[in-house]
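The instructor's notes for this session suggest beginning with a concrete chain rather than abstract definitions. Hand out the sequence below and ask the class to guess, before any prediction is shown, which regions might be ordered.
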Amino acid sequence: MASLEEWGLAGRSFGTWVTWFLIGGDLYTAYTVIAVPAALYGAGAMGFFAVPYAVIAYPYMMLVLPRLWTVCHRHSYITFADFVSGRYGNRWLTVAIALTGVLALMPYIALQLVGMRVVIEAMGIHGEWPLAVAFIILAAYTYSSGLRAPAVIAIVKDVMLYVMVLAALIVIPIKLGGYARVFELANQSLATHIPAATIHLKQGQFLGYSTLAIGSAIALMLYPHTATAVLSAQNANVVRRNAAMLPAYSFLLGLIALLGYLAIAAGVHTKDTSAAVPLLFLKMFPEWFAGFCLSAVAIGALVPAAIMSIAASNLFTRNLYGEFVRTKMKPHEESNMAKIVSLVVKLGALVFVLWLPAPYAIEMQLLGGIWIGQMFPSVVVGVFTRWFHPWALVAGWAVGMGSGTAMAVSLGLKSSVYPLHLPAFLGGTYAMYAAVPALLLNLVVSVVLTLVFRAAKIDNGTDVTDASAYVG
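After discussion, reveal the predicted structure:
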């Protein structure tokens, strides 16, 4: 591959269907298949927040991403951090956005490997060598082919997932006596959990549920792997068509979530909620079809992990190393560096999984969602207006990152729903997703400091993007 655009974005050549499979394979990961049902298996109705957040995300995608695609295509931008660099002309804001993306991606890639390990262990294979094999396969098939490799595998992965989920949701309820019986057994079992849960939201959970949905939707379209998949499209209309077609995956996600209740009703007992779905398949299906289902989950890990490692290497090459190198790299030099960095990123994720317990990776992912939302003022607002001052955005980002991290750490990284204590005249305590108050603080600081910096006539940076790219 002679350039980063060719290796990291497949030459921006993907049409509607390939982009649909790629974005779907990118957003709906192996860990989604394991973690969403696991949330319902362990915590009941709160786990369903993933369904409304997907519903919110696609109109948001229709509004924002075609516009971003047009600007990025016009200027040959590879990452959203490239866009921020061109829009605001501030090196430190660019570095902040790129660093946020890389930090948020590392535990996310690790979670794909965690998902693979859960599947491998469910098959009765123990030890670390299967993960090493998975790493070698992942590294080999992305090093030379770049984004084209996961695009091909994404089609196979999605077909297998649809077969797996539809078979599970038709065959297993029939064996268990129907869905009414499944919900009854799930509700009875959840009532015995500590803390007790139900298949309905309880009083006091509504704000946490809704802010999880809103905050997750904001973050979903800002992840670097989303940017990589979207910017690989042929044109803005491909992105628009995908925004209209991708809700089909929301339907699939709702079905996947129900696997958590099926596992309860089937009498699957495990302290590790992540193992609930693999154990369900092994218990309820013949060995050959259980193997097919577990293979679908494992292949489902390779696609997003590959795209994420490509996205992280794009960010490092263009916006971390690239911002400070004195002589601008030639296209083939960028491509070669990105290939090497992608290997390092995968190796880092492998070490993360091998040397740290899986719950730690999950807890770090909670932080990743909080962090990535802090890019909203610079990227999403930035594509509609250049009103914000770049240094105000840097300060707002720092406040948002700091406050969001502090809220998650104060909960021991066990949850991302933070009890926000306000004065009594404002209503007292509100339990909400930490990313939302952190983003609100980010926006307030950005607005106030923009007014201050403008009044003080502090350098506002230079916008080098083409104004005509924002029209339509």
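Then share the key points. The mean pLDDT is 84. The domain at 4-358 is CATH 1.20.1730.10 (Sodium/glucose cotransporter).
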